[in-house]
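Incident log, entry 3
Record: Helix-turn-helix domain-containing protein (338 residues)
Problem: checksum mismatch between cached and fresh output.
Input:
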Amino acid sequence: MIHELGSLVNKEATLLMLAMDNLPPHIQGEFIFDQKPDDQPYTDAEITLITHGKRYQFDVEIKRIHRKESLIPLLDSARPDTLLVCNRLSSFLADFCSSNAINFIDEAGNARVNCNGLNLWVEGRNSQVSSSKHQGKPGLGFMKLLFALLVQDEVLHLPFRTIADMANISLGMVSKGFQYLSSEKLVSLGNPRRILDKEALYHLWIEHYRTVLRPKLGGIKLNAPHDWRLLPVAPDDVWGGEVAADELTHYLQPYDFLLYTFEPLQKKIASLKAKPDQTGRLWLVPAFWGKDLSINNNLRALLAVAELLASNDSRNHEVAKIINEQYLHLKTPPEARF
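Fresh output:
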């Protein structure tokens, strides 16, 4: 994983971070730059791709490729556990890589990787479209980083590796996220780091929860008893939405239940003794943050307010205002947006 960008050329760092950030949602990337790179192929960095609980390690070449001749020096050194990270390749160059067993991921997230059971083939993504997307609204990794920073104040001052674990994101996303926050003058990266406008961070996260984070939560709808208190939950399980609002205010009688869990879904479904039901009132969702992030009232308030404001229920919107007054204390209360 990366600790500091060190002396790595900025353009190469940007290529690597974009490639990792644009991977498909079910794949995470961790990387560490070689502190003493040499002229040999595949010595610029090390990458670990993580999917379905399995880890695949690669020696990495970071290079801009515009002609076939740029790929020739890599042919003799290419192995299943080597990986080229590059600019967006033409179809011809991508096919040349495949024909010569050169694994690659480009800055737009296009990829062809075949290594010990990992078969990754993504094509058709455009780097310009991807860049404009990130400028227009935050991505999933950035939203998870913001969540960790807002839930637990000390997260801001921890090493990047620890922040990545607590936010459940790649180390590259931590670096990229802080660079963006610094450029927008929302966070100072001095020693110590400081949040310059915490209220703006709250509004940014709550506003984009509905369109960026919520659609990626996944999970499954289940049938449920009338009272959420009858459901057996584990110590690490966390209620969101209406139930979290009831826990915090005792003002709302929940109708829809949203439960975040770290347990495998099938195991959790069995312990809940619930059955899948597309119209069910219980939405069981994998927790999107890391296990070491504190479960506190600030976390519950964020999960409650964002979900309440994402609903079409005016009653929920009123309770969101109450939670803000009691827990978040935002001068400008967040509003529902549709």
